[in-house]
Amino acid sequence: MSIDILQVKCDTCSEVAHEPYIECCECETNLCTSCFAAGQEIREHKNYHKYAVRRNDFPLFDNCNWSAKEECKLLSAISTHGFGNWEEVSKVVHTRSKLECHEHYKKYYIENVQYKELKLLPETEQSLFPKPITPYLYNLQVCVNPPRNNQSDQHLAGYNAYRSEFELSYDHNAENIFNIEDDYSDDEDEELMDALKVGLVKAFNTRLIERHRRYNIIKNHGLIVLNRVVSWLKRFDDTLMRAKTEKLVSFMQFMTGMQFDAFMESLSLEDELLQKIFRLSDYRKNGIKTFYSAKLYQQLKVENTLAFKEQKYLTMVMQNRFESQSQSPIKSKQYGIKDKKMKRMSMPLDIVGLPCCHLLLDSEKTLCSNLRLLPTNYLDIKGQLISENNKLGFLRLLDARRILKIDVNKTRKIYDYLMQEGFINMPPVNK
Questions:
Q1: Residue (of 355, 354, 368, 362) closest to 241 by Cα position
Q2: 94 in any annotated domain
Q3: Domain HTH myb-type spans what residues (predicted)?
Q4: Which domain holds residue 398?
Q5: Rounded distance between C-alpha atoms, residue 165 and residue 143, angstroms
Q6: Quick one: the chain helix, strand, coil %, rounded to 5?
Q7: If you write DSSP's letter for every residue of 140-185 in order, what string do you get?
Q8: pLDDT in tens, 100-113
Q9: In a shared domain, residues 164 and 227
Q10: What is the distance between the alpha carbons of residues 299 and 320, in angstroms, rounded to a whole number?
Q11: In the chain, which residues have pLDDT < 50?
Q12: Are residues 155 and 208 in the same domain?
């Protein structure tokens, strides 16, 4: 337990004199309130001596709400429990939390010392003119301990930061190249065997160089935590296509991390500028020359589209009612007319200004608008079908439906268009 340096004992009863206590101004005798009220006298102290009431509730520092008693408890607790053990220090102070004890000691005893007697730490250049500390680029405290088997940290790609090595080496079978039998006879050519061994060593060094090259790429370009790289690349899905982004990842080995970031940001900015230029060109074609007019044009265009859709729907409803009332069951049986549900026609989608719209041909824009398909989704579908066609040499409609898994009617129209334009080949006819 820490000792309270302000603790005073009564000179008459030898008990702890709790505050407030009495101090004699003539003989410096300390008395508790009980002994003082009883008029106790000891040695040269008399009960008619002048006295003073003592309390330790005054502050020691300017602009501070800590009392002297709390300051003494703080210093005593730190000397007993050690600096940094603020949990135990706060229990001794009792009236302050551990955060308050930490901040108070840091402010009045380290950073802003008001008395020369408390300046225990020497002033250095770093303390007077602090320089910003450069943090680590990556967090090294990902693993709790440096285990020999790092399978629990799957997001680290098998990398152990404590040992700066990978659990599973690239081309880990490279050392097996030396597993050759050395029991040859003396009749065989020794020079030929020596040349074989030298060739094996050269091949092994080549594989080691490739292994270290890949390790340097992973470390220098932040590819250890692969999930963060993938989440960072998703930022460009709105401007750049997913397929295009995945192809650009291969360029990371030729650039530094900052260079690749600038490269991707510049491509994304280029695509945004192209979309703005295409949108401004559309405004100019419609005679719009101010931003206010463009904003009003977009608002009216949306309202017009909604009104047209509502009008089209109401027209179809009235037409269905009219046909159902005018066509009797007798006529339908007589002429073989079957009741058919009117299919609700959907309005074409306005794709002007959408991402990757400028990459489409005019016929592709019309197809996407009629199918109500976003340009980015259409380009992904087109890339998947062309890739499958290149693998097989042809593409059947059944394979296209198996790959896309969307509406069969949309799949059929996209398949017919790509077949007509020559993007995919017709399957061979079985004789």
A1: 355
A2: yes
A3: 64-113
A4: 357-421
A5: 13
A6: 55, 5, 40
A7: STTSSS--S--TT-GGGTTEETTTTEESS-TTTTGGGGG-------
A8: 888 888 887 777 77
A9: yes
A10: 32
A11: 1-2, 138, 142-155, 328, 330-342, 431
A12: yes
Backbone φ and ψ of 51, nearest 5° = -140, 170
Hey, how many other C-beta atoms are within 10 angstroms of the C-beta on 200? 13
For residues 114 and 158, state if they share a domain. no
Question: Using an 8 Å Cβ cutoff, are 263 and 398 in contact?
Answer: no
The Cα angle at residue 88 between residues 85 and 94, in degrees rounded to 5:
135
Listed residues 223, 255, 287: the one ending a domain: 255
The CATH number covering residue 408 comes to 1.10.10.10
Cα–Cα distance between 22 and 30 in angstroms, integer? 6
Residue 366: inside a domain, yes or no?
Answer: yes
Residue 5: what residue type? I
Is 3 a member of any domain? no
From 230, 255, 280, the end of a domain falls on: 255
Of 7, 45, 55, 5, give the one whose Cα is nearest residue 25: 45
Write out the H or E segment, with its range, that includes residue 121.
none
What is the sign, positive or negative, of the torsion defined by CA atoms of 296, 299, 305, 308? negative
For residue 263, tell me if it sits in a domain.
no
Joined tokens for residue 336: 């073989």
What is the rounded CA–CA span in Å between residue 133 and residue 52?
Answer: 54
Instruction: Please list, in sequence order, all residues whose beta carbon lies within 8 angstroms of the beta carbon of residue 158, skipping any fewer than 6 positions away.
Output: 150, 166, 167, 168
Total tally of structural domains belonging to the chain: 3
246-279 in b/e burial notation, b at 16+ Cβ within 10 A? eebeeebeeeeeeebeeebeebbeebeebbeeeb
pLDDT, position 333: 47
Q: Which long-range contacts (CB under 8 A, 24 or more apart) does 219-222 make?
A: 220/256, 220/257, 221/252, 221/253, 221/255, 221/256, 221/257, 221/260, 222/137, 222/138, 222/257
- Give yes or no for a contact between 272 and 239, defined as CB atoms under 8 angstroms apart: yes
SS3 122: coil
Same domain, 28 and 77: yes
Same-domain check for residues 165 and 251: yes
Q: Are residues 36 and 91 in the same domain?
A: yes
Quote the DSSP letter at residue 357. G
Go through 320-335 and write b for each residue having 16 or more CB atoms within 10 A of its CB, e for each that does not.
eeeeeeeeeeeeeeee
